[in-house]
Design goal:
By secondary structure, the chain is α/β, with parallel strands linked by helices. The protein folds into two domains: 139 residues, Polyketide synthase dehydratase (Thiol Ester Dehydrase, Chain A); 118 residues, 3-Layer(aba) Sandwich (Rossmann fold). 21% of the residues lie in helices and 29% in strands.
Length: 289
Amino acid sequence: PPGAAPLDVAGLYPRLHAEGYDYGPVFRGVRAAWRHGDALLAELELPDGAARDAARHTLHPALLDSALHVTSLLGDEAAQAPGTLALPFAWTGVTAHARGSRTARVRVTPGGDGTRIELTDTEGRPLATVASYVTRPVTADRLTRRRRHLYTVTDEPLPATAGRPDRRTWAVLGDDDLGLGAPAHAGLDALGATVPDVVILPVTAPDAEGEQLPGAVRAALGRVLETLRAWSADPRYAASTLVVLTGGGLAGTAVHGLVRAAQAEDPGRILLVARTGPDGPVPDRAALA
């Protein structure tokens, strides 16, 4: 650009890597840069392989991130405390003007309230504007892979049952392919007048692949939903426990959400037990409920 002094960007990404920033090949988009007064000008370009991905975005994240890399050429590193990284903290006045570009030109202008960033295409047409971009220093030890969560999911082992007599009555809905050793019944209506203490509903993985798999999963969900509705609606089952025994896989995952919703509506009457997978071990019957 007229009146602008060129800057050496060959060592930009090696220097950023040494400072603790690790950018992959798609995010290394700064191709050239110049200083024009207090402002920096730069040309940005994504790799050819990112062209299709760029067309899907209003502004490709790697192109925007490359514009932020230009701010590291402003020469204010001395103000940053040793051992810290400057990370985005606040964005003000962000406006997108066009979409789908793989290349861009950027003007970066520092100011008292933050850095102004103006992105255009190679013809000078506006792509995006950021009125103010502000960073904050963060120490490297706060960017470790350690994650802290307020809630975690833990496995609760089934209780040991060896030597404990089980005087409850049992039934299995459908075929007892898992060998649970309880009388099998086609459905709830087939249980008769005296409902067993524990009724097990096994949910096996659908024997289907490809285009038939979604229909098979819906069929498994439909069977479980029909059983849950009948179980909650009929007072005959009020003193018994329904155990939904899943075997993992896509059907098991879908059934989990359905059963949890039913448990919330009808607490204490439905138990969800998950095997580790379709070929996983079958829990001891007396430990199921």
